[in-house]
Amino acid sequence: MSTAEGAASNWWQRAGGAMGFHVLVLAFALRTALAAFVALWIAYAIGLEHPHWAAMSAWASSQPMREHLLSRGIYRFSGSVVGVVFAIALVLVAQESLWVLAIGLALWGALCAFLGNLQRGYMVYGCMLAGYSAAMVVLLHHGLAGSVWPLAWDRMFTVVTGVAAALCVSWCFAPRRKATLLIAQSRAALAGVLQATAADLRQQPMPAGGDYAQLLSRLAQVEELLELYPEGSRTARNTSQAMHWQQHHALELVYFLGLESQARQMQAPAEASNALEQEVKEAPQPPYAPLAQALEQLVAALQAPPQQQEGHALDVHRALRQAIGACEDAVAGVQSQAKQVPPVVQALYRLLQEMRQGLRAEELDLQGRTRSSWRPRSSERLPLHRDWVGAREAAVRAGGTLLIFGIVWAWTQASIVAFGMLGLSVMLLVFSALESPGRTMAFVLRGQLIGAGLALLCQALIWPWAQSAGQMVWMVLPFALMGGLLFAHKRTAAGAMDINMAMFILLAPVFPDTASLGQHLSMALAVVSGPALAWVVYRWVYPTNAQRRMQTLARMMVQEVPAMAHRLQEEAKPSRGLAVSVAATNWWQAQLHHRLLRLVRWADKTQLPERAQLPRMGLSLRAMQTAMLQLQQWRRETIFATPALRRTERLAQLALQRTVAWGKAQPGDVASRKARAAWASLAQQPVLPAVLAVQVQGIAQRDLPVLDGVRQALR
Predict the structure, then answer these.
(1) Whole-model pTM above 0.90?
(2) What DSSP letter does each residue of 163-193 carry, written as one string?
């Protein structure tokens, strides 16, 4: 680009910014508006009954990045197919009975809302689209049941037309996904963990940003970026999977670092703990200095910007191999002294091994090998968090509301009720998975009011001059471009998508336009009533916002403790449940890690006042469940042949039983004191191994009080 061209480009950017536009969004918004108009024109040209649906599909499927554009288009088409197939089956079964249609739509909407809230990425959109695509066909169909086929085919062809127009117009302009941004942030977070580990091995103070809470926040930022990263690319899915495993092992290492930091800050109250510390002090120190030095070299290599050049990749691989070798030498040195390898070193070695797989995935991603057949060694997917509580509430909210309005529709047989019910189904499905759907409805309502106003302006002042339906289509072009401008302006960006969706759903080019202004106004009010009614529903039926979702997630995490105690208590025979418990260990550890990162990220974004308790909660949850599993393992391997052992077994059963009761009682209740007393009595038993006794004592003195505080804050 010449100097003159660069100056002109900067001038336009400065002018657009001065007028209040998001300059980087403006080009995307205008080409999307153009794609919507092209879809509208093509759908009209091939004779589709509802060409404005094609424009809506073009707006809904457009994305700024090429991979996301393809993925969202695929999910929009797939969701539409599933929804239309269900609608056809429902109409044929109902045989013109509005009561059957109303009940069927309510059940289908509840199912789609439930499944959609359990998914991630654009799969959420596909599930929700299946719900309201069925509503579009059912509620807009008139006549005999057999006449539903033209409307169903029209819906399918308009979706295909809109998606194809968005792909054709945007594909050449949309940039590829930038892998370097995610990889750089992931490596920076891992570098912070390794830097803190090196300081711990040298027994030095933690570096800046190396405390437990800050490491959690950095890992949580990476976890958030992984939400949509794998969309549209097989290589990106491999990278995302490898990074999820890296996050899991990094958080495992951070957990042990947090435990050591917490132990250093506390005065050891237990004699077993004092004995262990004295034993460590008297033993020869293992050779950790070379390992710390190798970790520092690896940190320096990870902090360099990831590039596609061969030299930088070799530097990172070389530093990683040296760190793995130093870790193996350190382990050999510890074992030569007949000592147990510290948990920090074990977790560090597992993380370094997983990073070897992650680097391979990142290299392929940086090289743009979209058809690579390579897979991470850890092919098993991590059990990520699924919001079962939110999904159940969304299903009840969507299904119950649609059932009520469906009954009104079936009773009155009013088409205006059906049209309003259609808009309500979109609002209750698409926005139910957002963090604060009720707050979002305010922006949606504002956007739909603007879109309805633009549509009425076109219908009242512009379309009366048209001499044919083709001219009506061309007269929509200025309004489509205006929708793009509103999409890129800072004041209207929040509800801009709904401006265009409401405008196009009302601008159905039918010549001659025989509807009066009053009829157009009533249709506009029916469209706008959707978000207005949805706002009321979201406010009063399971009111949901970011803070309530965080509270629900925290409750689910805390409730895992009494649930595990109940499972361990119900194991009748020592041989029963051994494999199950091992599998459950891997499951709850990985799920706890993902839930904790998600919770920390939500708390950081919303500036939750209680977010300082989250790191302590994560440590206590992990420590308490680990102690219970190790206690169960000791019970399996022990023959209770003496009175002392049998007494310890009875106390272990009592501790698990009171932990279950603690989970059912109110925080700070008598059940909490009884549970702490039971674990404290168990820790005093002399036949219990010293290390396990320290962990059990930690449950009574640290973990249960911390979790009680969290439960009290969540009330």
Answers:
(1) no
(2) HHHHHHHHTTTSPPP-HHHHHHHHHHHHHHH
